[in-house]
Design a protein that fits this description.
- By secondary structure, this protein is of the alpha+beta class.
- It has 2 domains: about 140 residues, Phosphomannose Isomerase, domain 2; about 80 residues, Jelly Rolls, CATH 2.60.120.10.
- About 25% of the residues lie in helices and about 20% in strands.
- Strands 1, 2, 3, 4, 5, 6, 7 and 8 form an 8-stranded antiparallel β-sheet that branches.
Length: about 240
């Protein structure tokens, strides 16, 4: 993609991507480190890449590659993360789609809205595209540079109107609940849960309370608290993975 774009300075910088003497992981790690360590003088190449990217049309892989640079540069001009992000997979998710990110996987959101659930953590490592501090050396030590996209998670319908997104993570679990008028039981009865409405209007009813919720509103369900959803909408339920 860099070669097809034709930005000479950037192409020289990412040259190790074509070095067959290195493993795929080593190639990515080497180039990623180079891009994050751009000097102030070298950062002019970011503008050059974006200028060329703005001339790319169509809807193929190259145009998608170019759009990533253009969109990020508009928000974070001359940030090395603009070029570093071009080493990442650009994935477009449709409503209901999901993917699992194992530890060490760098990721960023370009547009739209989504539900993210994660293991508890006391540390966030940044790779650019932020005014905050980027610890390049520590980031390089923990990022998983294995290439490729592992694919989407296929949700499994556990009961009518309830789909579970299964992952290998024991720390959390996630369901999608869709109501079409008939009552739907909220899963994970033995665990505390967060219910988030993503679309439509739903009513959550338990033995002790009744809540009318609209898009963007959430409710906490205590462990052992039975609840049903009615109405017409889509909600997501997050809980610990062990319940």
């Amino acid at each position: 993609m860099f070669s097809m774009l034709g930005a000479a300075d950037a192409l020289a910088l990412v040259g190790p991507l074509a070095d067959a003497a290195l493993s795929a992981e080593e190639r990515l790690a080497t180039v990623f480190a180079r891009l994050l360590r751009l000097s102030s003088e070298q950062r002019s190449m970011i503008t050059d890449v974006v200028r060329i990217a703005e001339t790319v049309g169509g809807s193929d892989q190259l145009s998608s590659f170019a759009r990533t640079a253009i969109e990020l540069h508009a928000c974070y001009p001359n940030d090395p993360g603009v070029l570093a992000a071009l080493l990442m997979n650009r994935i477009t998710l449709q409503p209901g789609d999901a993917l699992y990110m194992p530890p060490g996987n760098l990721h960023a959101y370009l547009s739209g809205g989504g539900v993210e659930i994660m293991a508890n953590s006391d540390n966030v490592m940044r790779g650019g595209l932020t005014p905050k501090y980027v610890n390049v050396e520590e980031l390089l030590a923990i990022v998983d540079f294995t290439p490729g996209f592992r694919g989407l998670i296929t949700p499994v319908e556990e009961s009518p109107g309830v789909w579970r997104y299964a992952t290998p993570a024991p720390e959390f679990a996630l369901w999608r609940v869709q109501t079409q008028g008939e009552p739907v039981n909220v899963p994970a009865l033995t665990a505390g849960r967060i219910l988030l409405v993503a679309e439509g209007d739903v009513t959550a009813t338990s033995p002790t309370a009744k809540l009318d919720l609209v898009r963007g509103e959430a409710a906490l369900l205590a462990a052992g608290e039975e609840a049903q959803l009615t109405g017409r909408g889509t909600a997501f339920v997050g809980s610990p993975g062990v319940f």
